[in-house]
UniProtKB/TrEMBL annotation:
The keyword Signal applies. PROSITE patterns: PROKAR_LIPOPROTEIN. Keywords: Glycoprotein, Repeat, Signal. Residues 523-590 form the ASPIC/UnbV domain. Gene3D superfamilies: Integrin alpha, N-terminal. The keyword DNA repair does not apply. SUPFAM superfamilies: Integrin alpha N-terminal domain (SSF69318). Pfam families: FG-GAP_3, UnbV_ASPIC. SMART domains: Int_alpha. This is ASPIC/UnbV domain protein. It comes from the Bacteria.
Length: 1088
């Protein structure tokens, strides 16, 4: 496979070493283990990465007890040599039995290996995937090694019988996964394939309709020991752009049937096949996830937070350090990204993903929140295998990741060299390849911190040795109660890391051997639930894990300090259930198939949902498709997609609250009148239609003219306008007393341009309604902003109040009215982007800025709301921020910063966002992005290598005589601020509050206990390409614990599944309404 396809896809659319004596793991030498296998890769003019793109993908590992002696043996696949089978002789010493076992090699390029007892005789067999050999299909036949069940001096032997089983296919295979998809008791197989052909520009619909016999994925059904291709009738995609690199089978929606998750490289998104329980599958990845990895590689499935739901982790190739982030390729062209979306592809971002399972929606589809960046596992370089397991036996699954590539295939300088001159006819291929750098990087291991985050233990746990690793397995190779790790490396001996957790921590464990005892079923797919005190865990048994590897080993469960297992529940694949009680720890426990009376007992009870979706209001928000980056390239995110905001009030005096919903550019806002019974009917308002070209950003009902009815004030914003465009002016619509509105511009200030939010208050205590408007960004001039302003109501006319306190508030996004000093006058608290939380104290009609700690807490704030959450008689605050699930990091010591000036003197503002990576401040942009905006930098940074070391200050210093304005952010968390006698103290919210940017909040008492609870929503899917979608918030409920704190209510209990960019939440009686940009308003009714 040639490099050109990689480029074309994207614009389309010796002794012991490793670790100190305190390390959890120790890398053993080959002289100790006697494992001397090397996956040696020899590059030639014919065999190289430019001719076969997956040339450096490496080999896999299998772990299983092939001779049934109670010790786990190891099998390694080789790409250009013979595979190796090692017999475990105890004490981490192995013997090479490859030849005696009958493993042969005739020139095949082996990739993955899967352990399977395919004939159900109690002895483990192996299915080896084969690829490459493009012109030699006979050397691509996959191999099935059947265990002969005969031992000679303890050595097993195998006979290759793929043809007899119908599995001698010649596809370009990566890996296989055996599982019982039709619940008939035998094992079927999903065959993961990839392409070796060039794909440049193509029609997406046409390609998706194709079925490629060699590259397309396949599902093979086991019909009495013979495997039959049922891919078409089962709904399995077989198109030529599904570059499969990872596959896992698991029951992802809890219905008792095995589903399939497939990782696909390049533009084709991953597949999440839900089992329809009738022999067919439906791919629901677009409905179940907000986005997936771009270059998706290996994957794994496991419960990372012990909520008894399976989560998904996928690997990609985002480096951790700035140098490699800037030096290696990553998608950064927004138009190419839009092209991908327009062609029907799912959003993809180049980074590892952690998809947290929230339970199922009303259609039975699992709903995942992607939190890889919050979890701290998003950037581990060119990563292959992901293995979720409890490596320290504390009861929570940790994560091991292999990474490395023999050459930096995506090095931008090499890519440019190759495109410019590397393909010259008089130049040899090997000469071209010699220009491709080679870099080794260490593998990664992360400890689960029990709070949805992981800590990098590369060094602490002994994995700081640079190496190029691909396939990997974990297994308790010395039967001491902890898991060793084995990796298959390129051009280096395989690594075996001895785990010393059992000796060093004293944590307990149990290893579970599942014995179905019936020829009619397999242990594969069996679920196990373990309960010990407050600790509860879930695992589902499946052999294929990570990348090109598999493990037929006892199920390992760490137990921390628990001294006994209260109960252990087994749900066999056929649905039968059996329960064990008071199980001893620190043992290998064999569980024979003996289902009991628990067979009809549900394992996971379904709680009553707090909210149920209803359809009492029909409004579809519409927003003209705009690309703000085409106007100002360096924006942190777009500003055109602002609404819809919603506001309620009784406009027709019938005692029922009605609703105004703002429109997007090209759509007028709408008024909905509440009917008896809680339904809402649209009320036609011609005055609103005349302002359809405005972008509504907020609204407020107020009695502007003191005639006893509610009028409507609407702010305008957006980015696709002129700075002082008349369409950016705020609007006032007067009510005739019957709910009919007419625009009256004479009552407003003609300079009332571009507002983000409006608040109604009576700041002068004269009995009428005044207004405070948060100034919005000036179109095409970010981060410049319109000044925020206070308007006094003078007999129905709104007159600006002059006060220097409002001049430099910054780019405000929201405000709330609260008497925080309890003097009887309405004060203001404002938030904004690159601003602190600003308190404006009302001193008898004159506002003064309060200088305190909050005034130093700068963030990317989007919303603020008040409520007496601790019921002490004063108002506390919730400040909605950007959250922690993004690549930006900020702290007082290492703040996020923005340097702003017209650096190149072309009359446009250049905002350069910078952030710290490993202690140094760097620009947040790729070389191409920054140089496209600042052309003079091309003279300095003539190569990607030069730019990859450039700090923020070094870049700015290239523009002599410039003194850029500097703004900083030292806090990205959404904050809970408790009012303690006028002084606000920070109190932590549950970590789920940091999943996404918060753009919408509400404080109803959802459980009717007299304490206000908290609802948060938001998300941002109009960010930069490298930022990607931040969309993990499905509408969150935080229940007040009546002690001044909050507890997160899981989505599976709240019933909320709000997808998209939620920009407002509104509670009307027992109904919750969510305004979602470019989507229908979602309405939920609270259960009684």
């Amino acid at each position: 496979m040639k490099l050109i396809r990689f480029l074309a896809f994207l614009p389309l659319l010796a002794a012991c070493k490793g670790g100190s004596s305190d390390s959890v793991f120790t890398l053993l030498s080959a002289s100790q283990t006697h494992i001397d296998f090397v996956n040696s890769i020899q590059e030639t003019e014919e065999d190289n990465v430019l001719n076969y793109e997956y040339f450096y993908n490496g080999g896999g590992v299998a772990a299983a007890d092939f001779n049934n002696d109670g010790l786990i043996d190891l099998y390694f696949t080789a790409n250009q040599g013979e595979d190796k089978l090692y017999l475990n002789e105890g004490k981490l010493s192995f013997k090479d039995i490859t030849k005696e076992a009958g493993i042969d090699w005739k020139g095949e390029w082996k990739t993955g290996v899967t352990v399977v007892d395919i004939n159900k005789d109690g002895w483990q067999d192996m299915y080896v995937s084969v690829s490459a050999n493009i012109d030699k299909p006979a050397l691509r036949k996959h191999k099935l090694y059947i265990n002969n069940k005969t031992l000679k001096n303890g050595v097993p032997s195998f006979t290759e019988q793929a043809a007899a089983y119908g599995l001698d296919l010649t596809t370009y295979a990566t890996q296989s996964a055996f599982f019982d998809y039709d619940n008939d008791g035998d094992l079927d197989v999903y065959l993961l394939n990839h392409n070796v052909k060039d794909f440049k520009r193509f029609d997406a619909d046409a390609v998706h309709a194709m079925r490629d016999s060699l590259a397309g994925h396949r599902l093979m059904r086991n019909d009495g020991g013979k495997f039959v291709d049922v891919s078409v009738q089962a709904g399995i995609k077989g198109n030529p752009i599904g570059f499969g690199l990872g596959v896992h089978t698991a029951d992802l929606n809890g219905d008792g049937w095995l589903d399939i998750y497939v990782s696909n490289d390049y533009v084709e998104e991953d597949y999440l096949y839900l089992n329809n329980k009738n022999g067919t599958f439906t791919d629901v990845v677009k409905e179940a996830t907000g986005h997936v990895s771009y270059f998706s590689m290996g994957n794994d499935v496991g419960d990372i937070n012990n909520d008894l739901l399976p989560d998904i982790v996928t690997m990609d190739m985002l480096p951790e350090d700035n140098k490699r982030q800037k030096l290696l390729f990553g998608p950064d062209k927004y138009e190419a990204y839009l092209s991908m979306l327009r062609n029907g592809f799912h959003p993809e971002v180049m980074r590892n993903m952690l998809q947290l399972n929230n339970g199922v929606d009303r259609q039975g589809r699992p709903q995942f929140s992607e939190i890889g960046q919050l979890a701290g596992i998003a950037s581990t370089d060119w990563s292959w295998s992901a293995l979720l397991a409890d490596y320290d036996n504390d009861g929570y699954k940790d994560l091991f990741i292999t990474n490395g590539y023999l050459r930096d295939y995506t090095n931008n300088d090499f890519v440019k060299y190759y495109a410019d001159q590397g393909a010259r006819k008089n130049q040899s291929v090997m000469e071209v390849i010699s220009h491709m750098p080679s870099t080794k990087t260490p593998n990664y291991i992360f400890r689960n911190e029990h709070n949805l985050t992981f800590s990098n233990k590369q060094t602490d746990w002994g994995f700081d040795t640079p190496v190029i690793s691909n396939g990997a397995v974990y297994a308790d190779l010395d039967n001491d109660g902890d898991l060793e790790i084995v990796t298959n490396n390129i051009n280096e001996k395989a690594h075996l890391y001895q785990n010393q957790t059992a000796e060093k921590t004293g944590n307990n464990y149990v290893d579970i051997v599942l014995n179905p005892k019936q020829a009619a079923q397999s242990a594969t797919g069996t679920k196990v639930y373990v309960y010990s005190g407050d600790l509860r865990q879930f695992q589902q048994y499946t052999p294929t894990h990570g990348f090109q590897s598999s493990m037929m080993i006892p199920m390992h469960v760490g137990l921390g300090k628990a001294k006994t297992i209260d109960s252990l529940v087994v749900v066999w694949q056929n649905g039968s259930v059996q329960k064990l009680r008071n199980v001893a720890v620190n043992q290998r426990l064999t569980i024979n198939y003996e289902p009991g009376t628990e067979a009809s007992t549900p394992i996971l009870s379904q709680p009553a949902l707090l909210f149920a979706q209803t359809n009492t209001l029909d409004f579809q928000h519409q927003q003209a498709p705009l690309n703000d980056f085409s106007r100002q390239l360096l924006l942190p995110h777009m500003y055109s997609y602002a609404g819809p905001r919603m506001v309620k009030g009784d406009v027709n005096k019938d005692g029922l609250d009605d609703i105004y919903i703002g429109g997007g550019k090209g759509q007028s806002g709408e008024l909905f009148i509440q009917q008896t019974g809680g339904r809402f009917e649209k009320s036609a308002q011609n005055a609103f239609k005349q302002d359809a070209l405005c972008t509504d950003t907020d609204a407020a009902f107020l009695d502007a003219d003191s005639d006893g009815d509610l009028d409507l004030y609407v702010t305008s914003g957006g980015y696709e306008y002129l700075p002082n465009d008349l369409l950016l002016q705020s609007r006032l619509y007067l009510n005739d007393g019957k709910g009919n509105f007419n625009k009256d511009a004479s009552r407003l200030d003609l300079n009332d341009y571009a507002g983000n939010a409006v608040e109604v208050l009576d700041f002068d205590k004269d009995g009428d309604s005044d207004l405070f408007v948060c100034g919005s960004v000036m179109p095409n001039q970010y981060p410049r902003y319109q000044t925020s302003r206070l308007y006094r109501n003078e007999k129905g006319k709104f007159v600006p109040v002059k006060n220097d306190a409002f001049n430099d508030l910054g780019l405000l996004t929201d405000a709330c009215v609260v008497d925080f000093d309890k003097d009887g006058f309405d004060d203001l608290v404002t938030v904004g982007e690159w601003t602190p939380i600003i308190r404006l104290r009302n001193d008898h009609g004159v506002f003064k800025r309060v200088q305190d700690e909050l005034d130093q807490t700068t963030g990317f704030w989007q919303r603020i709301i008040g409520g007496d959450f601790d019921k002490d008689g004063d108002i506390d605050l919730i400040a909605g921020n950007y959250g922690l699930n993004c690549h930006f990091k900020a702290s007082p010591a290492l703040p996020l910063s923005m340097l702003t000036d017209d650096f190149d003197g072309n009359g446009t503002i250049d905002p350069i966002v910078c952030y710290y990576i490993q202690g140094t401040n760097y620009p947040a942009y790729s070389r191409d992005e920054l140089l496209d905006q600042l052309a003079p930098l091309r003279k300095k940074y003539t190569s990607y290598a030069l730019y990859s070391d450039a700090t923020a200050d070094e870049v700015v210093n290239e523009f002599k005589g410039k003194t850029p304005a500097r703004a900083t952010i030292n806090e990205l968390s959404t904050l809970y601020l408790v009012n303690n006698k006028g002084h606000f103290e920070r109190k932590e919210l549950p970590i789920q509050a940091q999943f996404s940017p918060v753009y919408a909040m509400a404080t109803p008492d959802v459980n009717e206990d007299g304490f206000p609870d908290l609802l948060l929503a938001g998300n941002q899917t109009h960010g930069r390409v490298r930022t990607g979608n931040i969309d993990a918030n499905y509408g969150q409920v935080f229940v007040n614990d009546r002690k001044g704190g909050f507890t997160y209510m899981p989505q599976s209990q709240s019933g909320l599944f709000l997808r998209g960019n939620v920009r407002s939440l509104l509670v009307v009686n027992n109904q919750l309404m969510a305004g979602i940009n470019s989507e229908k308003v979602q309405v939920y009714t609270k259960a009684k």
